[in-house]
């Protein structure tokens, strides 16, 4: 029996007063009851991302990239800023480079009228270039519909959206992990 896929939940905003940790905590509660995944939360605010692109990474940045490399799939918890995704997320994507290749990426987005969906659409283009597979189904929160306890106002709809996205993400995570393992075994045999 193989271990459950490792999913990295990435909190993409690094702004002061950000809402991302609230959304990420809710998503963690949705995944807590599942035995078919192993979830790790990675917060870009803790990744010590450099202001400019470099191969000489700080220890916390190297550790962040190593955690990403160990994951079989990703869920990006991203806001929408100015009709796009945060610069911190683009920096993290570029620094991690090839770790995204042949792995699936799901999205939990939030913000304003669009609920972060414009950021997600742009991220799909970025991940296509990195040979990652983005999941069609998303979780999207429009205008921050959370109560004081950090729960969405429509818990059932949000939970169903998360379940649908996770089920699809897991299908891809398992399929691509098997394909990567087969490819690794073939290259070692040659």
Provide the low-confidence segments as ranges: none
> What's the mean pLDDT score?
93
Largest sheet report: 6 strands, parallel
The oligomeric state is single chain
- How far apart lie the N and C ends? 26 Å
CATH topology: Rossmann fold
Rounded to the nearest angstrom, the radius of gyration is: 16 Å
Number of domains: 1
The CATH superfamily name is Flavodoxin domain
Provide key terms for this protein.
16% strand, single chain, alpha/beta, 5 helices, 6 strands, 190 residues, Rossmann fold, 6-stranded parallel β-sheet
What do these coordinates show?
The chain has 190 residues and is an alpha/beta fold. It has one domain (6-189): Flavodoxin domain (Rossmann fold, 3-Layer(aba) Sandwich). The chain contains 5 helices and 6 strands. Strands 1, 2, 3, 4, 5 and 6 form a 6-stranded parallel β-sheet that branches. It is globular, with a radius of gyration of 16 Å.
Summarize the model shown.
The protein is of the alpha/beta class and 190 residues long.
Describe how the helices and strands are arranged.
Blueprint: E1 6-11, H1 20-32, E2 38-43, H2 59-70, E3 73-79, H3 87-96, E4 104-110, H4 117-129, E5 133-134, E6 139-141, H5 155-189
Parallel strand pairs: 1-2, 1-3, 3-4, 4-5, 4-6
